[in-house]
Fold these 2 entries.
Entry 1:
Amino acid sequence: LPGLAPVNYCTKDKQSDTCKNDVSVFVNRLNSEEAIIPYEYHHFDFCTDDHETGPVENLGQVVFGERIRSSPYKLEFKNNQEWNYACKKSYQPGNQEDLKKIKELIHGISLNYQHHWIVDNMPVTWCYQGEPGQQFCSTGFPMGCYLPKSGKPKDACVMNVMLTKLYFHQHKRLSLIFFFFSFYN
């Protein structure tokens, strides 16, 4: 396909110039169907990568407002990791800068802002159980869940019946499936 170059992955002991072990995870802008303004990933107080690099965006990505950046999430081909910290955050009561960061997170959650991540040039897709017997999948996943004044959960928040008011999705679980293609002449 135009614009897509295949990537060969291999185990760490077999990596070379044509076969890599690290699987890149990129973060992109956050958007919402309830708000007009998209935000760059770094607008919110999320874990960030120290290098702040990303792939070169093509004209279409720039026109559509994508802002692809490297992430702190590190994956290796054929290396199952149970869990790992990307970073740790702590907020001090009474600190005005921390209060501002928390208010931004609450604002993003209440307007159902969605993360958009990219792994191996493919968008991360999130699937969840909605109402009984219905499964929904979408590109991107919410920052968290918010219970509106009506008291009735909406969107992805219907999956959590224990929801009280506000829930921040701070744990990410990625399941990667790689497809192998062979082309013969």
Entry 2:
Amino acid sequence: MTQKDITFVADFLTEHFNEAPELYNRKGKYFNVERVGQYLKDEDDDLVSPPNTEGNQWFNFLKDSTHLKESPLLFPYYPEKSLHFVKRQMEGVIDQCLQKPADVIGKSVHQAVCMSLYKISRSEDSTPQLFKLPFLWNDKTSNLHYVLFTVLENSISKIHILRRHTDTSRSVSNGILAVEFGNFLSNSINDSSDSRCYSCLDAHFYDDDTITVVLKESVQQEGKERVLAQLSLS
């Protein structure tokens, strides 16, 4: 160790581990703990070495503000408590704030339509993930709501498009349809019908009239081709 290192350690010990007679009646150690670590202890006891807030601009601002001093919008400050204590207090307030909207929204939601997408055996211990990459899109101009998804068991080369009117009392034609990519991208006379089959990796709406898809060549080999394609809803 260099002399600089030794001096640094000595200064640290001098600053944080001096005897503190005023703490003799307090629970715990009889010296000042390291001032960062005390904030991270997961306990409700007061800090052994609370911070000095004298001269803090924010506290002075609140103290001098008639309107903000008792404002319910400001989260109360606990200068004697650790961050874990403050975190638990804040989580409780947030949970309380979210509970009422959750109850109201939950009671307002109801099932508009039910469609059977696939069936699985009830005897299976673990249910496989058959529903993949659902993406939602709302066409505000036409008041239509779309859902893009794939069903893995059905066909990896298909993407399904579900369309519903935002007004649940109305219905639209072609509520659900599937687009199969297959080998339609083959543009060479040398490509056989089975050699260039594509599956969908991802799909998003680009705008109200266009869907962007990422396709992957389905052959089992290195360097599989990826294709970025855009499909018109029409």
